[in-house]
Structures are given as C-alpha cells and as structure tokens.
Amino acid sequence: MSLSATLPLPDTAPARKKRRRTAGTRGPWTYTVAGIAILAVLLFPLYWMLNVSLQPAGSAASTSWFPFALSFDGYSTAIADQGGNLMTSLLVSLGSVVLSLLIAAPAAYALAHFKVRGAGIVLFGILISQMIPGIVVANALYSAYNDLGLLNSIPGLILADSSAGIPFGILIMRSFMGSIPPSLTEAARMDGAGPIRAFFFIILPISRNALITAGMFTFLFTWGDFLFALTLTTNAEVRPITLGLYQYIGTYVSDWSTVMATAVLSSLPAVVLLVLAQRYIAAGVTGGAVK
C-alpha cells in the first residue's frame, strides 16, 4: 500500500476561497484605476484650457502645469471683446429652441396619436433631411437669405439652426408620445376636452422629459454651430461666439490666455445646462424605447 493512499489529502477549499476573495477585491480596484486614467485623458484638454486662461498673457507652449500666478486679464479682455457675440449666441440658441419645440411638439403628437395619411412618408422625409450635408443647406439658404434680406440677422440664424432642431425634436418626441397610453386622451375627451386641450394639459406635462431632451440638443447644436454662422453672416454686427472665437485666434495668436478665456466662457452655458438637465435627458431618450 502506498503512502499517498494512507495519508489524507489536504483540504484546498480554504485556499480556493482565499484566491477568489483576492481576485474579487483586486478586480474593482483595477477597473477603478483604469476608469480614472481614461477620464483624466479625456478631461485633460478641458483642464489645460482652464489652466491657460488663468495664466498671464503669453504662449501656451511655455505655460506651467498649474496656475501658480493667477491672472484674470484674459477674462476681462474676452468679456469686453466677445460679450456681444456671447449674447448673440444666447439669443439665437434660445430662439431656436422655442421655434423648434413650437413646431416639433404638435407634429410629433399628430404623428403619434392620429391616423395621418402618409405618416410613414413624412417620417422617411424627416430621416432623409438629417442626412443632407450642412454645407448644402447653408449654400441654399445663403441664396434665399440674400433675396429675402435675412443675412446678418438673428431671425435668419434662428430659422437656419431650427432646420436641424425640428426634425430631431419630432423623432424624439414622437417616440416618447407614442408610448403614452391612448386611454389618457380618451378619458380627457370623455370629460369634454378636445384634442388641442388634451395636448396642452395632458400630453405636454407627461412629455416633459422628451421636451427637455429635444430642447437641450437643439440648444447644443445651435450654440456650437459654425457653418451657418460663417455662411449667413458677413459682418461683425451679428456674429455668434463660435465665429468670434475663430476670428479671435488670428488676432490673439500670441496671447493664448485671452483665447482660452473666451473658450471657457463659451463652454459654460452648455456645461451648466447639461448638468442641470442630465436626468431629464436620460429619461427622455429612453422613454419611448419600451411601451
């Protein structure tokens, strides 16, 4: 009889459990460190923009890694030179949001709750409009605006930017409104409310998340628009901040503190609105996914 047959084998279960615990505790830390590293790489351009904006005037290549000597001269110059452009972008963005929602919300309600003949063709046309290159639309609008006298005007920029916000708003809100039970509108009609009253007092309050989502995306597109601003404005009277920043770089190429300060100021409205409306956007995008 061999010795291995007579002696009991050691129990390896505690060792296996210990290895599992070690691997389980090591895994989350590895993912956390990797996530922090990726986030640091993604946020580094934003940090560098803020860092350079708080430095004294000079070249960005010679800027220190930390703003030890804080200077707000770049912000004072940026506000003095670009304050009007910021207000122009704000007016155009808010006007585009209002116009897009005024048109997209009733259209989405009609496509979602009424038997509209040719609704599929309408939706197909909306999708096709999203695929047209912006430069094609801008060139066509320039010719029309030149005849109508809408060049270098805030209403003209609002109309141009709404051409992208309206189709997107219809697609988002139609998906959301289609998930609303028809029994709600039927109950309102039994109580004497017509389709218009049911839309304003029942559909719109329920569709708050979708409205905020469509409005936010329209605002972000309009705020960051460069193509329409470059094509439909030919002087400095009406100039959005994107075009102002583009032309600012050529003027202050040796003073990157002012340029970065302008970039920080132009980023603040979008960042603040995204932080405030984050939970509404997440609910509005996924609201119509499941009925």
TrEMBL record:
CDD domains assigned to the protein according to its UniProt record, in alphabetical order: TM_PBP2
Subcellular localization: Cell membrane
Domain ABC transmembrane type-1: 86-277
Keywords: Cell membrane, Membrane, Transmembrane, Transmembrane helix, Transport
Listed GO CC annotations: plasma membrane
Top-level taxon of the source organism: Bacteria
InterPro entries, alphabetized: BP-dep_ABC_trans_perm, MetI-like, MetI-like_sf
An annotated GO BP: transmembrane transport
Region of interest (Disordered), ranges: 1-23
Bilayer-spanning residue ranges: 29-50, 90-112, 119-142, 154-177, 198-223, 256-277
Pfam families from the UniProt entry: BPD_transp_1
Annotated membrane topology: Multi-pass membrane protein
UniProt-recorded name of the protein: Carbohydrate ABC transporter membrane protein 2 (CUT1 family)
